[in-house]
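Aminoacyltransferase structure dump, as promised
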Amino acid sequence: MAYQFETNIPQDAYDTFVKKHPLCNLLQSYDWAKVKNNWDHIYTGVYDHQELVAAGLVLIKNLPLHMTMFYIPRGPILDYENERLVGYYFQELKRIAKKRHCLFIKFDPTLHVNDYASKDYNENRYESTQKYLDTMKKIGAVHHGFTMNIADTVQPRFQSNVYDTEGWEENLPKHTKRLIKDANRRHVEIVTGGIELVDEFSRLVEMTEERKRVALRNKEYFEKLLKTYPDGGVIFLAKCNVHRLAQEAKEKKASLQNELDNLPENMKKKRRRLEDQLRSNDKDLKEFNEVIEEFGDEDKEIAIAGILSIQYGPTCEMLYAGMDQRFKKFMPQYKEYVENFRWAFERGCKWSNMGGVEGSLDDGLTKFKDNFNPIINEFIGEFDLPVNKPLFKLSEKAYTIAKSRVKEQ
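structure tokens r here:
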């Protein structure tokens, strides 16, 4: 057999192969092991006559009783049409896994079940996938099924993705363009940078965590990402000058009050409209003053929304986002998302992934992302390849119980 399996592929060879492959993904980059440094790892690959034809970053989690589990996030990277190659890769990986007392190998390749716009939700999308399922069955892998909820798998099975197609920006929905104009009228500006913006970005993520009652990541993790990917990591911050906005609100209040004071008594409809505008303006002014009290009465820009993204090869992953909800009507996220897409495509990315969505495509996150004309990528899902079959059955049960307890908390 010409194939040769290796567990320590050099970085240059590894990243060159993954970046050029159609299944390229950040989570299979060489440096992702540095981000997940609480796991052990090996850089696996298969050579065919000295040519690298498969690669996989395998993360290794130490379990009780000196056992382990292997996880290949969004991988391995290889030609899944080549049944012989798939079989050889997992046969050899399983051999290595046995030496590490591994219970099972979990993997979730970026094999697309289908790609479609949200409004074109495709019910008959599994027929072309059967050949891959048959291949996985032959190697002994257990498919977790076509799950629908983000919480059902380690990585989302559905993601919302914007592709660099001709006229992508001109073809944005009219209401999205209108909301970007609203942001411009509010003097929202977008700045880009790296680690120097982490403090402001972390504050926004913390506010989002509190609002949505979810646990995301902390400042140290964001710094780790940016240091690990110094050439591809970027933070986008939407900023506005609250001092300037407060001054404009005060001037508007004086103008509205003056117009109201001089309005004839018989113009009741206009009076109601002016009173509504005045109440709205007072609400804005109150919120601006609260922010000024928090940050100081200085003529400076305040971060109100942010995104952290990483480019890897021809891909861009928009990993984390946060927003100060007090500035929701400024629509900062619409402007900064478009800036993110523009940045990615100018750097040669084929797509910019906004992240996972629920398979029902009717949740709030999906509806927000639909404002950017995305394509829904639906992946084949998650597989477990048992290594120690008797203990695998027990570990499956323990894993299910652990997941249910987490959901109950």
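Residues 3-108+382-408 form a domain with the Aminopeptidase fold (CATH 3.40.630.30).
lmk if u need the other ones
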